[in-house]
């Protein structure tokens, strides 16, 4: 598919390796006067590419949210393409939960959530993608190292790195139950990947991602340069991270399940174009093309 009138600053899915590309977009688009985060925290996010915010969800919401995840998992149709299953058959992710649950839609609009997204991205935002992730004890499998923006750019046509993810823990995140790992500072560089995007790549990549991931030599160099941090914390804690931050998680072989609400906010000024490196668009539930600015609830 030919891309017209849009400059591709981040070429990827190539037939040969090229050098890493320095980021041309800001990490923080707003100012300290635009939201709840002070300048010190904005500087930290700009430097490290992630931020941990405790108490993003009130304690009395957590039992209801966990119940809501169980309800959604029980109610969705087996043939619903928004439901992604592990090879064992257990549910791995459910997309568009904010459209399936009024309670989860309320989480999107919390004053501990939406104003942070607006501040980091410098104005009006919309939901590019949302899902709930399940990592049950003993059987939950991990996510290989990747930059979300690489996929959203290549397969969805997201032009600039002006999106941010918010992962809200609904269970305890221990160092040993598959909690997310990040490479702090890796968001400042785009790492092009080798290999063409297969048709309907999303039907397999949401379970196991093989295309659009850096090679092991690159990952080793990045880890040596930046190190690896791990997100741990109690239920209700939010991990905010830049769309280009390299991250991944191991499998959960413990008895302790891990689940989270995963929200991706994109700037309304960064609406999707045609895919930069894929033969067709992905479905709307993976990459929203209807741009509806989110408004705080009065």
TrEMBL record:
SUPFAM superfamilies named in the record: Clavaminate synthase-like
GO molecular function term, any single one: 2-oxoglutarate-dependent dioxygenase activity
Domain of life: Bacteria
EC number, UniProt record: 1.14.11.55
Purpose of the protein: Involved in the biosynthesis of 5-hydroxyectoine, called compatible solute, which helps organisms to survive extreme osmotic stress by acting as a highly soluble organic osmolyte. Catalyzes the 2-oxoglutarate-dependent selective hydroxylation of L-ectoine to yield (4S,5S)-5-hydroxyectoine.
Subunit structure: Homodimer.
Protein name, UniProt field: Ectoine hydroxylase
């Amino acid at each position: 598919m030919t891309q017209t009138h849009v400059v591709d600053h981040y070429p990827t899915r190539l037939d040969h390796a090229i050098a890493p590309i320095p980021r041309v977009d800001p990490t923080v688009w707003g100012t300290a006067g635009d939201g709840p985060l002070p300048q010190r925290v904005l500087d930290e996010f700009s430097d490290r590419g992630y931020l941990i915010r405790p108490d993003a969800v009130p304690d009395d919401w957590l039992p209801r949210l966990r119940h809501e995840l169980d309800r959604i998992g029980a109610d969705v149709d087996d043939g619903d393409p928004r439901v992604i299953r592990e090879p064992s058959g257990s549910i791995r992710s459910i997309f568009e939960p904010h459209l399936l649950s009024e309670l989860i839609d309320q989480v999107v609009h919390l004053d501990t959530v939406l104003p942070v997204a607006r501040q980091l991205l410098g104005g009006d935002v919309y939901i590019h993608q949302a899902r709930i992730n399940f990592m049950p004890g003993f059987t939950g499998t991990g996510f290989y190292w990747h930059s979300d923006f690489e996929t959203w750019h290549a397969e969805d046509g997201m032009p600039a790195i002006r999106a941010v993810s918010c992962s809200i823990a609904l269970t305890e995140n221990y160092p040993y139950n598959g909690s997310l790992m990040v490479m702090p500072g890796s968001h400042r560089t785009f790492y092009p990947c080798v290999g063409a995007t297969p048709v309907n790549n999303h039907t397999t990549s949401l379970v196991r991602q093989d295309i659009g991931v850096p090679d092991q030599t690159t990952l080793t160099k990045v880890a040596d340069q930046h190190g690896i941090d791990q997100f741990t914390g109690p239920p209700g804690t939010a991990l905010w991270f830049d769309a280009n931050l390299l991250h991944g998680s191991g499998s959960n072989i413990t008895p302790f399940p891990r689940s989270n609400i995963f929200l991706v906010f994109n700037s309304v000024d960064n609406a999707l174009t045609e895919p930069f490196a894929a033969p067709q668009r992905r479905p709307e539930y993976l990459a929203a093309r209807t741009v509806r600015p989110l408004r705080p609830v009065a």
